[in-house]
Amino acid sequence: MAHAKKNQAPRGRKGTDFARSGRLLRAAGEPDFFSSQITEARRFYVHAAAPPRGRVAVLCAGIEHCAADYRISRGDFPHLAIEFVAGGEGILEIQGRTHRLMPGAIFAYGPGVAHDIRSTAGRSLVKYFAGFSGAEARRLLGAPGPEPGQIVQTSAPEEVLHLFDELIIAGLRETPFRDRICGVLGEHLLLRIAESAVPLGAVGTEAFGTYQRCRHFIESHYVHLRGLEEIGDRCGLDPAYVCRLFSRYDHQSPWQYVLRLKMREGVERLQAPGAMVRTVAAALGFSDPFQFSRTFRRVVGVSPREFVRRYARQGDIGTAARESPSA
Questions:
Q1: Is there a single domain that holds both residue 186 and residue 234?
Q2: What's the pLDDT tens digit per position in 63-92?
Q3: How many CB atoms sit inside 10 A of residue 89's CB?
Q4: What pTM does this model have?
Q5: Peptide bond into 144 cis (omega under 30)
Q6: What is the spatial distance between Cα 188 and Cα 132, in angstroms, rounded to a whole number?
Q7: CA 246, 252, 257 angle in degrees (round to 5)?
Q8: From CA 65, how far away is CA 67, in angstroms rounded?
Q9: Nearest to 276 by CA among 313, 306, 308, 302
């Protein structure tokens, strides 16, 4: 990521000046913790005010292509920060433990967290980083991890990479809305990392492949699935093992995932003209419409009938607006 000391910086300053030696020259005014052991970078730093309660503030973000001899060693860091390895290999020493860095790895650090990051010879790291302030950012890096001092791997590296890219693009724009947009994107990024976090090294294992196969089966057949046993039978696995896979690699049980997909489908079907709760329930495999209603309320937050009433009112308002001469 961002790297080694600290200074003031103009809002949204790009770090794109290149030395003829192949190393990046830190742009005037960039913070000293932006590394110069870099061959290519896009990054920004802003003086964001403390965010309101419940919101995230992004202080900096970027992508850095590390030099062959890249090494950063710190005993401290002023902000909460995360780094995502997009390419190459390296070594991370953090909180007294050593980890191999590989694509998809994500680690966090902050005040009081000593860390040492270095590239592997011939496999220079390509890393994204982001720095945050606010209690909400700290909370989002809670249970699923990585908490400061920890490292995990994401099961959705393409999505995480895309979110980092969107954050960098937003941070490099000089508009009055930049800080708020970056905060929203930063929160989305932290939530997606939490949602997709798995133990380091899990991605690519046979067990993770089996979990992905079960998840894909559920996504393709959820409408007609009626129980956990059916998932196990169709996937050729013991249902208890399917549950263990989801416990390790997901944040919900396989049947909870099925129900969320069914309720998402229910939301879509209930918006159709003349939709009836009983008919939608039956189409989603519920023989008892009351059980469907209870599940729908638990997942969506309102009953199916209330959802239909609210949607109908919104439709009436939208129709009236379209028909109004002033619309």
A1: no
A2: 999 999 999 999 999 899 999 999 999 999
A3: 17
A4: 0.70
A5: no
A6: 13
A7: 95
A8: 7
A9: 308
